[in-house]
Amino acid sequence: MKMAIVQMDIAFGEPEKNFLQVESFISQAAEQDADVIVFPEMWNTGYALKGLETLADKNGEQTKNMLSRLAKQHDMHIVGGSVATKKTQGFFNTMYVANRNGDIVAEYDKAHLFPLMDEPVYMQPGQEKNIFELDHVKCGSVICFDLRFPEWIRVHVLDGAKIMFIPAEWPKQRIDHWEILLQARAIENQCFVVAANRVGCDPDNEYNGHSMIISPWGEVYLSGEEGEGIFYADIPLDEVDRVRNTIPIFHARRPELY
Fold this sequence. Notes:
By secondary structure, the chain is of the alpha/beta class. It is built from 8 helices and 16 strands. Strands 1, 2, 3, 4, 5, 6, 7 and 16 form an 8-stranded mixed beta sheet that branches. The chain has a 6-stranded mixed beta sheet with strand order 8-9-10-11-14-15, with helices on one face. Strands 12-13 form a two-stranded antiparallel sheet.
């Protein structure tokens, strides 16, 4: 399965500019015959949280329509990172996933909101996990700060996920945590981790990418890039079963103790 990870410099508070960028990236990845393209967190607005009333995508309609149209047009799965959405209950940090048929197969609201960037002040937390299938492969996805909660990742893997997608806006000053935690989650859950981080700056933070793809054995398939662009890697999905048979941690678990 060929993965395309997008590291984009998000235009702060300019959704229309960002939508055009995303469409261009999808076209570029299609030319490289990518099976899946993955975007970073909050790509429609960045963390322009004070302007959500006018900037957030109402019920995600613009995002869903674009992802569905382009996924079908290019015969590609799109893990749509996340966007700021406005719903009846308030504002959310929402991921949409479109399969190659153009169906929206997942909608996930970020469960753990990040206090250091004021998310809990402006947004509501999600209440459901995020499991979906791409080409008959069971996948899961969480968003950025969710990465720091290993029990939340484990819930998805126990539900069958072989790939965990993790879009983020992870600041440069903590990028070492990002890399270590991604590798740990892959090893402890014996799954592929495919993580897309943004680049560029907003009024409060600098971001330097370091998007990663990590195997169930902890091998780094892709890492370290700091510039804007699309980065590709093929992942052998049979590696998941091989590693899980080599060290059978899921058979050795003792959930009655924890």
